[in-house]
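Need RGS18 protein's 3D structure for a figure. Predict it.
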Amino acid sequence: MENPLLLFPQLNISASKDKPYYKVMKSAIKEEPHKASKPGAKQKRNRLSLLLQKPEFHEGDHLGKPGNLTKAASVSPEEAVKWGESFGRLLSEKAGLDAFTKFLKTEFSEENIEFWIACEDYKKSKSAHELLPKAKTIFETFIQKDAPKEVNLDFHTKEVTSQSIGQPLRSTFDAAQSTVYRLMEQDSYPRFLSSAAYRSLLQGRAPARAPLRRRSRSFTVSDFQRARPDFTV
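Structure prediction for RGS18 protein:
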C-alpha cells in the first residue's frame, strides 16, 4: 500500500511546525486542485477549523494550545483577579489569553481572538517585504466574504481594509482589529468573567472541563455602534 503522505502531501502537518502564523494560515486556505464539484464555504470552514485545532498549525503557545487550561490552572487567585480589571490586562498576560481563547472555543467564536493575534503578529513584521503576503493571508482568512474564519465587521471597515491590501501598511488592519477587540470586550469578556472556569481560578481550583455550548447570539456591529463610543484599545 502506498504511503498516504505521498498521495496527499498536504496531510504532512508536521512540516508546518516552524512556519510563521501567516504562512500556515495561507497554506491552510490554499485552494485544492480542481474537482468535479467545488466544496461549499461551509465545508471549507469546517475543514480549516479542524486544521487550526492542531498544535502544529500555530506559532508559539498563544494559538498552539487554546484547548488547554494547564497554564491557566496554575495561576494564583491574585493573578486571576487582575484579569477582571480590564480586557486589555487579560490579553496582555499569556495565561489570561490562553484562558480566554479556550472560553471562546466553547462559544464557537475563537475566530475573533485568532484574528486579533494575527493582527498583532502582522504589526511586528520586520520589513515592508513581509507585509504583502501576511496582509493577503489575513484578509483571505478573516475578512473577505465567506472567509473560512470570517469576523464580524461593518461594510465601511471591510471596504477600507480591502482597498489597502494591494499596498499594505502596518496600520492596514488597525480599524478592523480595533472593531473586533471592542466587540469581544463588550460581548465575550463579561461572559468570561461570569464563567465557571474563571470563578474556579479565582477560588484557586483547576477549572473543570466546560461542556460545549451552542453559539450564543453574537454582539453585532450595530449593537456596538449603539454603545458608548469612548472605548480605547
